[in-house]
Design a protein that fits this description.
Helix content is 37%, strand content 31%. By secondary structure, the chain is of the alpha+beta class. It has a single domain, classed as GMP Synthetase, Chain A, domain 3 (2-Layer Sandwich). Strands 1-3-2 form a three-stranded antiparallel β-sheet, covered by helices on one side. Helix 1 runs antiparallel to helix 2. The longest helix has 21 residues. It starts with a strand and ends in a 14-residue tail after the last helix.
Amino acid sequence: DYGYAIDTLETAVPWSEVNRTMNGIESSIRQAAQEYNEQVHIFTHLSHLYPTGSSIYTTYLFRINDDPVAALEFWRHMKTAASKTIVEHRGTISHQHGVGVD
């Protein structure tokens, strides 16, 4: 109703990749939004800690326009950018939520 949408994504990576992956996810989402001349509010936290690594949970809030097709395209562009970054850093494509259909 207010012209905004929110999404989350999560992954798990070895400790050696946590900082790079977290920064990479946020950077890739931000860059993808900038390609649409938009800004995005992103916040990330570590949610599950293990001896070998951690899960990374990212939430992002973004403005959408009135055209649902354009809004979906914008979201997909950001989500794809983040997913590519996750894979590049050896992260799982999902952690505790499981793999579903976006």
